[in-house]
Amino acid sequence: xxxxxxxxxxxxxxxxxxxxxxxxxxxxxxxxxxxxxxxxxxxxxxxxxxxxxxxxxxxxxxxxxxxxxxxxxxxxxxxxxxxxxxxxxxxxxxxxxxxxxxxxxxxxxxxxxxxxxxxxxxxxxxxxxxxxxxxxxxxxxxxxxxxxxxxxxxxxxxxxxxxxxxxxxxxxxxxxxxxxxxxxxxxxxxxxxxxxxxxxxxxxxxxxxxxxxxxxxxxxxxxxxxxxxxxxxxxxxxxxxxxxxxxxxxxxxxxxxxxxxxxxxxxxxxxxxxxxxxxxxxxxxxxxxxxxxxxxxxxxxxxxxxxxxxxxxxxxxxxxxxxxxxxxxxxxxxxxxxxxxxxxxxxxxxxxxxxxxxxxxxxxxxxxxxxxxxxxxxxxxxxxxxxxxxxxxxxxxxxxxxxxxxxxxxxxxxxxxxxxxxxxxxxxxxxxxxxxxxxxxxxxxxxxxxxxxxxxxxxxxxxxxxxxxxxxxxxxxxxxxxxxxxxxxxxxxxxxxxxxxxxxxxxxxxxxxxxxxxxxxxxxxxxxxxxxxxxxxxxxxxxxxxxxxxxxxxxxxxxxxxxxxxxxxxxxxxxxxxxxxxxxxxxxxxxxxxxxxxxxxxxxxxxxxxxxxxxxxxxxxxxxxxxxxxxxxxxxxxxxxxxxxxxxxxxxxxxxxxxxxxxxxxxxxxxxxxxxxxxxxxxxxxxxxxxxxxxxxxxxxxxxxxxxxxxxxxxxxxxxxxxxxxxxxxxxxxxxxxxxxxxxxxxxxxxxxxxxxxxxxxxxxxxxxxxxxxxxxxxxxxxxxxxxxxxxxxxxxxxxxxxxxxxxxxxxxxxxxxxxxxxxxxxxxxxxxxxxxxxxxxxxxxxxxxxxxxxxxxxxxxxxxxxx
Length: 868
Ligand code: GCB
Known about the structure:
The protein is mainly β and 868 residues long. It is built from 11 helices and 56 strands. Helices cover 14% and strands 40% of the residues. The strands form 13 sheets. It has an 8-stranded parallel β-barrel with strand order 22-23-24-25-26-27-28-30, surrounded by 4 helices. Strands 29-42-43-41-56-48-53 form a 7-stranded mixed sheet. A 6-stranded antiparallel sheet has the order 3-2-4-9-6-7, with no helix packed on it.
């Protein structure tokens, strides 16, 4: 999206419309080649990344190196005497632009825009070769050095060509041609507006100009206008500033996101020609923070509620068309948010425009994440990034916080040999850099709040870094990476007590969640939607009890790529409130109930509409129901019959229904809104009675059901054997680490259904099904979770070799017949690799699968039982 608009239609009296600037998209038709595969050239359109596919190769690495884009540009003869620029909104991460093999400019950093002057390198009346070389390799001098997101390479934002007259508003500085609009003072009566830019005279003679500034109110009425006469020497540049006052300004807020427009016109004093025009938007508002009372906008207290957002999407990587930026911002608004943390780097200019237009208060930051390099070059690059971020985005009334570091003490580059002094020096360097960034930010823009995100450690207080920004954001994952959900409040209270003058908010929170995983018994690390809900509800409740907390931003708006991370889907961080392709998870609707003002009601269970349950003596199964609503009560009907008026507490109403086998329709209503959802009850005592026999699938070793997103198969939660039904006999759940993981946290190769294989039961005697007589096919799912299971260990003392504890060999017997013999998964398929083995069995009444250990404990991840 262009920040500065080409005005085609303005034709001033005796001004020449032809003389104005021309901005044209250069997005189409580039030839691309990567150094990795230099014989393979393809035609691409921008935005483009070369990592949208390889960043997701199961167990593989993505290419970080050089990619080159070529394009032929015809430069007409009549462009002589004008200035020609290329503007790129963002390319990751080191970019060199060449014209006819000469370097026109280099930009460093993947998340801010840049403009290069092509004029000295072009040949008029001829084709010119433009070459853009992008490099996303690790570079110790460019942040981020390491982070929990994928560093996609490429020109992944829009590129434009800008043609201006010799007398024009400067294009090629760190601000990428933005005029600077500041509102240093605003109250209900008056807003002071400063507009600053540079005028450039590229002609060889002196210029005399008339600079006209006009301001339009949100309804499009011109409310102010001022003219300044300026003289410029040949080949010179001149700073221009307007300082105006708007009486009775219309104020920008989340409820009233009204924008004023500025138009700057440059008129050549000699010819009276209009030589350049730029427009942009701004808003009038004031804000402040109070360590006890939180955030204030236009004198009114606000709780900042919203999300963090990364900039990628399933299948596209980070090369997003503007339509996805728009969709995301509208979804964020529709959730009821008034706040966004644009994490962990400046994003597309459209994001800031949408924040303005929709009324979403923004924190924007540069990508200094996890660690720094202690060099001047690194520090200067950080400072330059901050300069670019601020200058390119400062006109947006929605932006109120500038951030510059995230969790910089989480992964310091220490090892066992790092001395105490070495550590202290590192901390000191980081603190020094933070100070410099804070000072620079204030120099560039005194009107905004500076902010930094910290992980839940005291090191930020001990080193003093937390005292540098105006506000601190805590990234808190109690109930996930450690601790319990209810410890959040205590942590916030202690911080508030120990630092009574420090305003704070929660800049990140939330667990990993996969919509394929459903349960009524949520646990940390089960990746279920139910646990996500529990976690977010607890955090919101605890924050709402504390006025001093400015607000909170959920981690994350949507699932996002993080190569080498293993959640339920490898290479994806699944803490999103929406999936990677933007399907809202249940928790999204919870926020709507908590934050929206219009009547809202929703029955949770979008991805859990088929429920397996045991029947009670009346033949009915238990169906726990969660309803989100923003009313006092919600009325519930089941199959058209009134059931209950349920009280709503903090946005949530709970009940448990007893329902018969089969489909049921639930309707929840409040005054002004209603919602229906159907649930299908699959009662266990009925499962074996269905004709024809319906396959049974069990997610062995898990309390959760798992739905295969491709086939739609549902693998129900595991259970202990009861006569007449099915289940395991003996054994225990496999848990890789006592504190965190249900099952293993490893990527399971050879499957897209990792969670099915990640949870397992070990050391059990048998698995039984009391099925009717018939011929069955049994499919067993396995994965070896022990990475050392294949290794031999040598006992040096005795000179003997012996197998390690991790070695696992077992056999399986079906109704007494050996069907799998001496299975060693590590040897036969490899560790952490999906393995499926099947056999048939004819039975006159039940199936008993016995697991007999040869070494270690037998392991099992899933069973599918079908009738032949
Ligand atoms: C954090 C980081 C963020 C990670 C997140 C997580 O604290 O700031 O970049 O993605 O935790 O999911 O672990």
